[in-house]
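Would you mind writing out the residues of a protein together with its fold in token form for me to study?
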Amino acid sequence: MDQMTEPAQRPALSIEDFYDRLAPDYDAMTTFEKRFVQEEPFFRLLVQRYGIRSALDAGCGTGFHSILLARLGVRVTAVDISARMLEELSRHTAGLGLDIRTVQAEFGDLVSRVAGPVDAVFSMGNTLAHPGTKQELRAALEAFSGLLAPGGILFVQLLNYDRILQTRPDIQSVKETAQGTFTRSYEYAGDTIRFTIHKRPAPAAGGGEERAQTVELRPVTSTELTVLLAEVHFDEIHKFGSVAMEDFDPATSRDLVILARRASA
């Protein structure tokens, strides 16, 4: 087997290429099936408390949260930049008998590609670390705001970059699966983080060559995100440390979860 290219020498992929390549392994990496039991009670509470009948899943990946919401009776539009991620979502829904509309689009095109208003926008799984500049992040949040009905909710999940930028870990996580071992690592370069996923295939799954792929992330702090949300007509902005809505601690929480309302006026 050829020696792997060192991460610092590996060019960063576009967001679309990164997730197209990752799509076949994504469910294994994220324990797709087990998460339904873990997360369903919290999303049921959101749907009931805020009367959510329609939602946009922005950066849907292979569709975990789209499927979870659809099972709760929500009419879901699932958006992702990766065609292969959307193919995986469609494969799931075909087996489940769920009707989820899929749209391949960048966030800048959402208002023209998705019919609104919707009762809720969900952006999960660190999606908002992908806009490359503060202006692009603001434009994404503005698109969410433009699609929400007045009083509708935005629910965002990001990694807690307050903690990551303070502690600067090299390894984000290592996950053992039947398909292989997935190691997620970071390199810090100015205002960005080079994020690499390295897969070492399991011999029992047929082996194969090790591979790695890299994409650039822009770490978004809790302060930056809450300020931008207020600028694009959100209020009642609350910060949590997980989807279970635990208290957010910038120094220790793994995640940053934001729940905000689209201002009525």
About this structure: The domain at 28-160+222-262 is CATH 3.40.50.150 (Rossmann fold). The CA atoms of residues 115 and 147 lie 8 Å apart.
